[in-house]
Amino acid sequence: LINLNNERLGGPCKHCGNYYVKRTKRQIVYCSKRCGLKHTSQTAIRKHRQREHEETLKKAKRFAAMWAKTKTRMHWKEWVNRETWISKNWLTRAVKNGELVEPVKCI
To answer: What's the pTM value of the predicted model, to 2 decimals?
Structure first.
């Protein structure tokens, strides 16, 4: 680049990948405030959902182990659903993904 203002060229933007002209000399990562907010909020939401998923998984494992020790005739998914309000569909997905082991009744 032969232009004297070539140090003002910034990019690519961390969110959208576009190149941009910096308004100040300091290093900027995003092309606009909108891209910065979108990128950081997406990362924060992803982390929050992952944490929430792990907490639900721990809770489901704990209550599935409790079901194995009870004397109920109810299916384990129904019992865990009534105790914790974790949906039966969520439990089924967790078992199919290998995150949760289907409990066996101790007799």
So the answer is: 0.77
- Cα separation, 30 vs 8, in Å, equals 14
> Closest Cα partner for 68 from 38, 39, 106?
106
pLDDT tens-digit series, residues 17-46:
999 988 887 888 999 999 999 999 999 999
The answer on pLDDT for 72 being more than 90 is yes
CB burial of 77-103 (b: ≥16 within 10 Å; e: otherwise) equals bebbbeeeebeeebbeebbeeeebeeb
